[in-house]
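Predict both folds.
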Amino acid sequence: GDLSYAIGFAAVWDWWLWTIEELTSKIVYFTNPGNHEFDAPKFPADRPASWFRGTDSGGECGVPAAKLMPSPRAGIDRDWWSVDIGLVHMVSINTEADITPGSPQHEWLARDLASINRSVTPWIVLGGHRPMYIDSTYVCNGTDPFHPNDSGGGGDHEPCDIDVAHYLKMSMEPLLLKHEVDLAFWGHSHVMQRHCAAYNGTCVTKSVPWLPLGANTPTVAPARPGDPGPSDTPPYVRFVEPKATIHLVVGTAGAKHYKNAFGDAT
């Protein structure tokens, strides 16, 4: 998500598509929607509204992204999909649409994960826009992710990082644990973060140092002044039989980069 940042200007879509043409003409390039494609204060009467009612899409309501970026989605208002690529079952969700239990998206996700043949695709990778796990100090109400956003009204929900993370955990994390989803990629925040294998906000499996077979013992450069963490951080790490999904925030291809909010591991 947050692809072109056109926010209603078709010329920006044209320019952005031109800039990625060399790449997308050679590889499969599937997307899912972010707030800058989907969120709007009001939707047409015949369409379900976005979960967050901000003005971030400039009134696009997901239309240009769905029309310009082909994917296995079922439709503009069912912008979630899955596909097998080699040994990997790729799952894409729409964090800007309702994913609470009982919603069409939640029911689809439950069916899709239950249908996977792990002897054919032993790996499950899920992607969505707003993160389920993120180290951030951006919090609104915090304790109640379904608390309405008073500034938006009309069914809007708090869009802050921590509130959204709680909402996603409550809505869909049990499905990820039940079906042993291996890896989840998120965007939205313009940072790079790798989290431990976690469930319900608790780290259940941490990575361990690792040296690839045949590699020389690497020299670890000292941390730069002001960088967090010890200077002896191992250059290679791996997870050994993680007991929950590993989460990564990869938002570094967006607009202006944010500063990571360093704090306790989440």
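Second protein follows, with its predicted structure tokens after the sequence.
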Amino acid sequence: MKAGSAMNIGIMYFRCAEATKEFARTWLETIEGNPNYWDQHAFNDLARKGWHNLPDSRLARGWDGRLNVGILPVSLFGSGHTFFVQRMHEAKQVQPYTVHATFQFHGTPGKRHRLREFQLFEDGPEYYDPPGGVITYEVNLTPQLLENSTNYSGDLADTKGHVDLVHHQLRDLRSAYAFAKILNRTLVLPPMFCGLDRLWFGHKGAFPGSEFARPFLCPADHVINMETLAKQRVPYREYSFLSNAKLSPAYWREGATLEVNEQGSLLTDEQILAKYSDLSGMPHVKTLRLSAITNAFSHFVDQNEQKEFEKIIRKFTTTWGNSITPQGGEVKYNWLWDMGAT
């Protein structure tokens, strides 16, 4: 069995045996005796004492030869990477028993959003009928953007294709966020696509040893600070929201499409309100779809409101980092890149 990395204890299965119970007691006594000893480190330190692999087996012998240890199949017991990023259960065509929301970047809001993207989080009925309805739009990506996004040799200079892909999507998301704010609707976040994986350590575009095609549908927390987004006044939902069976049929039946960028013109907040003021008289329109969202929003006329908008948007920024090269470093996404702002 090849298992050189630290074993994650988020999902565990103990066979009822005397050796197992004795190991559990020893583990508990170890961490109770040292409050600063992380339970996962303590587990690995104990289990890997005298570790040796058993021939022709998925098991190893651990804890000085007193315990058989194995790794649960990662397609059936998913981690935050094998499930949410690699989507191994889809590739293997199996139904997972459970998933552990690890390998994400923005605390509880990030974990909760990932589970919602896969419709695994249990929300109350009010979540599926937000006041004022929702606003959504289609992602518009060119084949060239997608094709160029995966070129990476380990040098930060090679991230241009990936960053161009992300920036294109963030620009459109910025416009949609402004429309949602102005029209008092809940924003349905789009599916986000990435050319490169996001990790805490150096890599060559993807998690070492992983198998998945790139570019890929990446979790929102790869490119958006979900903790900050969750604190703002504009409510949002996950990209899979409109396909959730718990949703009222009204969201599929009763919708309207706005041609928001008919001639490539950018609209201010005042123009948006004037142009779409009739929406206030159509409460039955649950789903508002924006067409041609690219460059649809220009700015808020009030300078103070525009500054506040840019301030909020900047807080959504997250980074892509790598330390595989001697130079190391990170790339900081810029939601205002096309406006000449940093």
